[in-house]
Amino acid sequence: MYRLHGSLLRLLCCCSTSLLRRLSRIGSYHILIGSNVGSSLAVKLYLSLKNICGRGVGDGFLSKCHCDLKAPIQSSNSLGSVRWLQVQSSDQDLRSQLAELIPEQQERLKKLKTDHAKTQLGSITVDMVIGGMRGMTGLLWETSLLDPEEGIRFRGLSIPECQNLLPAAHPGGEPLPEGLLWLLLTGKVPSKEQVDALSKELHIRSTVPDHVYRAIDSLPLSAHPMTQFTTGVMALQVQSEFQKAYENGLSKAKFWEPTYEDSLNLIAQLPLVASYIYRRLYKNGQVIPADNSLDYGANFSRMLGFDDPKMQELMRLYVTIHRTDFANFVIEILLQIFFYSDHEGGNVSAHTAHLVASALSDPYLSFGAALNGLAGPLHGLANQEVLLWIKSVVDECGENITAEQLKEYVWKTLKSGKVVPGYGHGVLRKTDPRYTCQREFALKHLPDDPLFQLVSKLYEVVPPILTELGKVKNPWPNVDAHSGVLLNHFGLTEARYFTVLFGVSRSIGICSQLIWDRALGLPLERPKSVTMDWLENHCKKAAA
Ligand code: NMX
Ligand code: MLT
């Protein structure tokens, strides 16, 4: 086993092709990066290998690597973040990989408890208690970590790093959601073969019982798509493996196993339920069957109806103009939406799932609860609100609205007591990188779209106004400020449906963490609450 410390790793990044090729053939590596070396170096190493030797060689090398990146990732907020880069074996079975990892992570947690149980993480102030626990560290969430300035990292990887490292369906394409699921669950970047195996596994798990569709059909068509979605998830709960196993007396050490089964089944079945709702509401109930030869994202897109022959015909025209394939565009956008999958643990949907699951409710019950939080306008429903609001701007002022008119409209919204949807955040203090990657996509592929141009104008107009308000902590756009306009451009125009897409994506992050909740034996969540009387008395005593 080789231990490569910072300087050696730096050297490796610059070393010759032949040496890299030789290294790629050596059997087993363990790269331990010293605390003074950033994770980007390891990413650079991977990219050097990939670029210099070709993807196959780089992957081969990394498939033999096992990197513990114990370094601060970029900023102080990422301190102590640990992640692994690439898998240590060609094992294609996700569950057995997980089974290998669990004991070492249980040990880590045990050691943290033994060595540091009483180490202070900060102090709690009155404004935190009455201010929605903002800034209060109170949850363990392994799959991702949010930095207020930089944005989200999935197991230590930023969005651009994920785009570079995770397997895609075609060169230069967006990462496949299966790869993100693998990364979130194991902390390792999978190979294309592993992602393909997971794709197949998800297909096998994807059969949705008829009673689920009947439950959805019992709702009026006027029911919000999110209500229909949650109803579908609750109907899926009937098949929970965890519930059955618990009733049969399963021991705590094995809780993660049926949680894994439920989670993967749920993730596999959600695109069928979600696309059924879309077709029921907007396409006269004409359901498109799954195509098991496609990957998760492409199959979902197909079931929604974005690669049927008529659409492709329409798109041939588009292809001629833009020299690209429309159906792929929609798939790419959907894949980008998979970057919504996880946003550390404190956001409303993730936190809700974690809280409900802490009572040992199964993944269906927990995720159903999460969806109800996601359906709120300050959280996931904001992507619907953004497109509706932008369309209301166009209805009132036309597409060629000037910056002055736009300012007036924003002020009118604020003065009527509403928020500007798609702006602001509970933790982020800069433009959301998920917004940035969608903006880059739009700049490249639809720069002339009038609604995208409006979104761009808003990017200039809104932040100074929100700053002028004086109370908004983050005047910059969040993830929801952009996606609707992209989807709308490519024909997915039904704004009320957008949060369902967010929900499908979020299942990947939430379920990954739920499995770890059970594997690590995390306890019932039960914070202390107090009354205003209690607070006043406490503050009086503190001041005396
Ligand atoms: N428009 C108008 N006012 C705002 C906005 C906004 N976009 N953002 C924050 N404020 C107000 C907020 O309502 C609060 O006012 P008050 O004291 O009168 O209650 C004040 O500014 C301070 O709020 P913050 O501390 O900056 O933000 P907070 O952490 O409480 O809330 C959001 C975060 C995301 C709920 C808030 O920024 C918001 O309502 N944004 C618009 C809705 C939205 O885009 N939500 C999607 C978030 C992303 N997601 O998918 O979940
Ligand atoms: C999310 O993706 O959940 C949102 O950005 C909200 C949050 O992080 O609080």
TrEMBL record:
It comes from the Eukaryota. One of its GO terms (biological process) is tricarboxylic acid cycle. The keyword Signal applies. PANTHER family: CITRATE SYNTHASE (PTHR11739), CITRATE SYNTHASE, MITOCHONDRIAL (PTHR11739:SF8). It holds the Pfam family Citrate_synt. GO terms for molecular function: acyltransferase activity, acyl groups converted into alkyl on transfer. This is Citrate synthase. GO terms for cellular component: mitochondrial matrix. Residues 1-20 form the signal peptide. Belongs to the citrate synthase family. InterPro entries: Citrate_synth-like_lrg_a-sub, Citrate_synth-like_sm_a-sub, Citrate_synthase, Citrate_synthase_AS, Citrate_synthase_euk, Citrate_synthase_sf.
